[in-house]
């Protein structure tokens, strides 16, 4: 499994399709981290929202590195489509973790400000929640599920917008709390409680993607 993850990661890096979403994320974080951007919890909430969109893009890019023929060869070599999908999820998660580090550190570098003990954990949980949801959306909107990428793009945008803007959704609920407080300790329990929802969505999306892709093959 480790060899398969290394292969998937190396193929993704060589194809360089990760550059566009990573650069978009860095640009968004740079804008959100200005001198007058407000308390750190609100900045981290905005960065997490950007990471959801970019994690979706990254996941689709990781899956799209191999065309159907090469992916079929990889599945045969790995002896299981589940292993190949798991490696894809693992690489997408590693890239999302990289976005999390950027989203947490860049605001402190670009605009030094006081940091409480709860700021970084709350920001990390918000990024992990959005990263999980982004990977989930990317899986179900990849070409493993949608043959027409135009439709996949529309569905991905709709799902990302729904996750971020629908009142009562885990990200929307967390962002509102983070945007309206200067003490991240107030939102830390909520962030901990909402993270399993993102992980559950990722698990469901992985199952759906596997079932659809196997039936098509």
From TrEMBL:
<feature type="transmembrane region" description="Helical">
    <location>
        <begin position="84"/>
        <end position="110"/>
    </location>
</feature>
<feature type="transmembrane region" description="Helical">
    <location>
        <begin position="44"/>
        <end position="63"/>
    </location>
</feature>
<feature type="transmembrane region" description="Helical">
    <location>
        <begin position="122"/>
        <end position="146"/>
    </location>
</feature>
<feature type="transmembrane region" description="Helical">
    <location>
        <begin position="151"/>
        <end position="170"/>
    </location>
</feature>
<protein>
    <recommendedName>
        <fullName>ABC transporter</fullName>
    </recommendedName>
</protein>
<keyword id="KW-0812">Transmembrane</keyword>
<keyword id="KW-0472">Membrane</keyword>
<keyword id="KW-1133">Transmembrane helix</keyword>
<feature type="transmembrane region" description="Helical">
    <location>
        <begin position="190"/>
        <end position="212"/>
    </location>
</feature>
């Amino acid at each position: 499994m480790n060899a398969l993850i290394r292969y998937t990661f190396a193929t993704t890096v060589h194809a360089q399709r990760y550059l566009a979403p990573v650069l978009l994320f860095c640009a968004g974080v740079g804008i959100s981290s200005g001198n007058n951007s407000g308390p750190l919890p609100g900045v981290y909430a905005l960065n997490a929202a950007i990471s959801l969109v970019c994690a979706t893009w990254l996941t689709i890019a990781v899956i799209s590195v191999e065309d159907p023929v090469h992916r079929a060869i990889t599945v045969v070599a790995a002896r299981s489509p589940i292993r190949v999908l798991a490696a894809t999820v693992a690489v997408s998660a590693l890239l999302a973790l990289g976005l999390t580090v950027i989203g947490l550190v860049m605001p402190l570098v670009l605009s030094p400000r006081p940091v409480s003990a709860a700021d970084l954990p709350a920001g990390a949980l918000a990024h992990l929640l959005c990263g999980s949801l982004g990977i989930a959306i990317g899986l179900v909107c990849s070409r493993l599920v949608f043959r027409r990428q135009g439709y996949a793009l529309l569905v991905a945008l709709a799902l990302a917008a729904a996750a971020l803007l629908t009142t009562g959704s885990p990200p929307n609920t967390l962002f509102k709390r983070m945007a309206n407080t200067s003490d991240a300790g107030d939102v830390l329990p909520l962030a901990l409680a909402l993270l399993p929802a993102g992980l559950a969505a990722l698990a469901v999306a992985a199952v759906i993607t596997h079932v659809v892709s196997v039936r098509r093959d």
